[in-house]
Amino acid sequence: MKKRVLSLMLTAVMAMGLAVGCGPADTGAPADTAADAATETTDEGGSAASTGKKVAVAMPTQSSERWINDGSNMKEKLEALGYEVDLQYAEDDVQAQVSQIENMIAAGADCLVIAAVDSSALVNVEAQAKEAGIPIIAYDRLLMDTDAVSYYATFDNKGVGTAIGKYIEESKDLANATDSYTIEFFMGSPDDNNAVMLYNGLMEVLQPYLDNGTLVCKSGRTSFEDTCILRWSQEGAQKNCEDYLTGFYANDKLDICATAFDGFAYGCKAALEGAGYKVGEDWPLITGQDAELMATKNIIAGSQTMSIYKDTRLLADKCVTMVQAVLEGTEPEINDKEQYDNGKLVVPSYLCTPVAVDKDNYKEIIVDGGYYTEEQLAD
């Protein structure tokens, strides 16, 4: 899709923010022995006296590529500093994650990093961690209704929604449109605060066009409550899209699938193919988030229009510096102390900058940035 000037400016600004605002930390070399690690220092001059300390990392699922990458990046960087790492995945099972964290506490974790399946279910076990003196860092999903969390490492989630909305606005030239476009929404899990923030950012851009009729949602489902999909389920998105196509688009075409996640884009793709839509003919604009390998391949092939690139290597770097700070009694870098109110406190946070990628800029952003190789994308 041919990008307009303002879209190019948006990508450039966000790319600059990523490069400057969330650059990787130099974590130094791994300790060779326990004695070496006790006296080692990082290239930044801070102490890396981490041997004997255990960091427990609770991730939500391995069903999404991004969480696998998050976990492996985190483990690698923490072990390079000499920490022992206990990395576990809950496979989107709430009770399994509760049990995993209970076991991490019992096993003597010195710090917990948690990307929650459902943060509301973790309040009691987080209280146990606080009572045991174990600091908690929330990772890319805010831990709600607890005063046990120390810091939060994430991307600018409202900014993700804004970037998706701006991409739709610019691609369809909504400000100057003389025709209307049909749109349906596929938003994130209702138990994930990030999903709400993304929705808010998206609607700040698109609501005026819904109000004036430039965008038409034939299902009428535009609220977060009506468009959220539990556990970020790809199957849920596919079913919703199938229902919309059958119920509202038998005689009209769907122009835009505004989805909040690459998995949702896959689900919409399957539904559209089943309904007879064809890439290059009547294929809708489909958004996404995470720039997964499959999503990037789909962007190249034309079956997904764009995604939000979130370099998890950079996010892992920021989280690792938070872990190091809480275990060494120093202060990590923070760039937001206002947005992330979890109902008990405003959690000090570091927000990395999201970047919109499509067929026009994926090579510059993703390939040249070393996230994927041309060979991976060609497989």
TrEMBL record:
The listed locations are: Cell envelope
Q: Which InterPro entries match?
A: Bact_Solute-Bind_Prot2, ChvE-like, Peripla_BP_I, SBP_2_dom
Q: Where is this region: Disordered?
A: 30-53
Where do the Periplasmic binding protein domain residues begin and end?
A: 55-330
UniProt key word Transport: yes
Classification via PROSITE patterns: PROKAR_LIPOPROTEIN (PS51257)
Is the keyword Signal assigned to this protein?
yes
- Any single Gene Ontology cellular-component annotation: outer membrane-bounded periplasmic space
Pfam entry (one) = Peripla_BP_4
The record's keywords, sorted A to Z, are: Signal, Sugar transport, Transport
The principal localisation class reads other
Positions in coiled-coil regions:
none
- Can you provide one Gene Ontology molecular function annotated for this UniProt record? carbohydrate binding
Q: Low complexity compositional bias: what residue ranges?
A: 30-46
Q: Which residues form the signal peptide?
A: 1-25
Which NCBIfam families does the record cross-reference, listed alphabetically?
Answer: ChvE
Q: Name the chain's protein.
A: Putative multiple sugar transport system substrate-binding protein
Give the taxonomic lineage as stored in the record: Bacteria, Bacillati, Bacillota, Clostridia, Lachnospirales
